[in-house]
Structures are given as C-alpha cells and as structure tokens.
Amino acid sequence: MGKDDMPLHPPVRAARARAHRSDLSEHFRGDLPLFVNRWEEGFDLREHDHAYVEIAYVMSGEGYHYVSGAASRTGKGRLYILPVGTTHIFRPVGATGSSRLLVYNLGIKPDWLPELKRWLSRHGGGASLRIFEGEPGTHIALADKDMTLGRTIERLHREYTDGVPGFETVLIAGLLELSVRICRLAESDPAAHGIARDAARGTPEMSGLLTFVDAHASEPLTVRELAARAGLSARHMIRLFRRHAGMGFSEYVQHKRVEQSCRLLLDTERKIADIAKSAGYRDPAHFREVFRKVMGVSPGQYRRAGRHLEPE
User: Fold this and answer.
1) Nearest Cα residue to 74 out of 160, 143, 1, 24
2) d(CA 22, CA 282)
3) Of 146, 159, 257, 294, which is the most exposed, with the fewest CB atoms less than 10 Å away?
4) Going by CATH, does the domain composed of 31-192 fall within 2.60.120.280?
5) Predicted confidence (pLDDT) per residue in 122-181, tens digit
6) From its phi and psi, is residue 215 left (phi > 0), alpha (psi between -120 and 50) or beta?
7) Which are the contacts of 192, defined by CB distance < 8 A and separation ≥ 6?
8) SS3 of 60, please?
9) pLDDT grade, residue 8 (50/70/90)?
10) Range list for CATH 1.10.10.60 in the chain
11) Taking a C-beta distance cutoff of 8 angstroms, is the pair 165, 112 a contact?
12) Regarding the domain delimited by 202-309, which CATH topology (the fold level of the hierarchy) does it fall under?
C-alpha cells in the first residue's frame, strides 16, 4: 500500500466554532478609511474574518493559506483579496529560517468603497472595483510573479508607518493605483477571473472532488477510489489533484485532518488521543508528529495557546 492509498477512519464530527472577528477598531485610525500593517505569521493566531475588506500580500516565506476551510500552498508574491466575512489564516511550513511568512495587510473600510468607486469610475477605472465586491466566503488569489504589486504595498506601508504630513493622500492615491494594477493582473490570468471560494479548484469536476475530500477526510479514502469517482485513471487524478489543490493527495488529507483536530482542540474538552482517533489516526504518537509538522507546535501547546487568546 502506497502513501497515497493510506486508509482513513470514520470521524466523530463536532460543531465548528465561530471564527474570531477582527473589528474596525483594532486597526483603523480615526476617519482614515484604510490601514497597512506587516505581520510575521506564526502559529498563535486563530482562524478569523474581518469587518473590512483586506488585501493580503505574502512578501517572503512559504506555507499554507486556509480560506473558508480550504487549504492551498502560498509563498512569495501571492496576493489575496478577502471580502468582509471570509474566514482565513496563514500558517508557515516551519518556525525558523526561510519558511517564515512575512505578510503585508491593507484593510479598507467597507463604507468607503462607494467613494472609491466614484474615484475609479470618474477616471476610467470603474471595472477595478469588481475585485472588492465578493460575497462572504469568497476570495481572489493572484500570483504577482515580478513582485510589482509587492513593491507598491511596501511603499504604502512605509507611508502609513512614518505618518509624515500628507501621507493620507499618498495612501489613497496608492490604493487607486493598486486597484487598477490588481484588476489588470486578474484579467491577464484566466484562472484568476472572478471571485471563487477557492480559485485553485479550477474545473467543476475537481471542485466537486475536493469538496468530497474536505467532507470525508477522516474516512477510508484512497486515490483509486477518488479516481473511480471522477472517472479518471489514478495517475491522471494524482496530477490533476496536485495542480488544483496545490499539494499532493496525502498532504492535503493530512492538512484537512489537522484542521478538524484544531477545531476539536479549541472547542471541546476531549482528550488528545480521542481527537487523534476522530481525525483518523489510530496512533496518538503519529498524530502528534503530523500535527507538529503542519502547525509547528504540539496539540497540547496549540490548545493552551488558543485558550489563552480566546476573546473575553
């Protein structure tokens, strides 16, 4: 039996806790309709959504981005637009060295979007506002291969941080430019058109297959079974799966199991060995090994850190 044919075991499902909401008061200064910050992603933050539209840009490092429960690879030059209400979290592949994820975030107050639309429409860039009009649970993901957008965001961060006279005007002008350039990039990449729940899922067939794996990751799934379900050869299914999910079948399943385990660790009082079994691991030691590899901390450390950060 190969690693892609590993048996999985039936889950014991638990209700998913509501994600933390990042409110306007946490970041915005007075009447200024946007903010820019820089954050080194680790393992301390929980899954969250925002009361504002967010542009997130990965400046360096590599890891995973979980959006609305779906995981995908991320790294330098990846840009995401997250509408109000879309849950997400970044996780680095490790805690040290080049794997560290450095992310810039640009937040926009939703009640200022009509004003942004008036500016863009007045000067021929009205179509660019479409990138900010997604529904909760959707997002845009783009690859900025030459880091052009990254340099613009980095410059806006310096303006925001330094706060020299007139920085507000520079920020708004920069956002207008950024909006048009993001729209151009999206239009030049057919795979990025529109705002999808997970743009990497591509075809309806693969989207349905990945959705099935998401729902049954702890059950006895194999590559052969999934290939038969999709009407594909196992070899072709493996290639398509990696292309659309951004990782291989085994790795994807491991991440979905760890996602489920994270929710159970934070939302229940169940023992770690019991959670391991629910996620499909008969051996608690193997579960701890996989969990640490994905999350960078042990299950117990994750539970303690999450409880400590739970909002009052």
Assistant:
1) 143
2) 37
3) 146
4) yes
5) 766 555 667 888 888 889 999 998 899 999 999 999 999 999 999 999 999 999 999 989
6) alpha
7) 140, 141, 142, 185, 186, 199
8) strand
9) very low
10) 202-309
11) no
12) Arc Repressor Mutant, subunit A (1.10.10)
Outline which parts of the chain fall under CATH 2.60.120.280: 31-192
Q: By the 8 A CB rule, do 156 and 179 touch?
A: no
**Furthest-apart CA pair in the chain: how many Å?**
66
Helices (H), 220-281: 223-230, 234-245, 249-267, 272-278
Question: Quick one: tokens of 189?
Answer: 């990449």
- The encoded tokens of residue 170 equal 């520079």
Q: Which residue has the tokens 């690693």?
A: 3
What digits encode the pLDDT tens for the residues 199-251?
A: 334 456 677 788 888 888 888 789 998 888 888 888 888 888 877 776 788 88
CA 240 to chain centre: 21
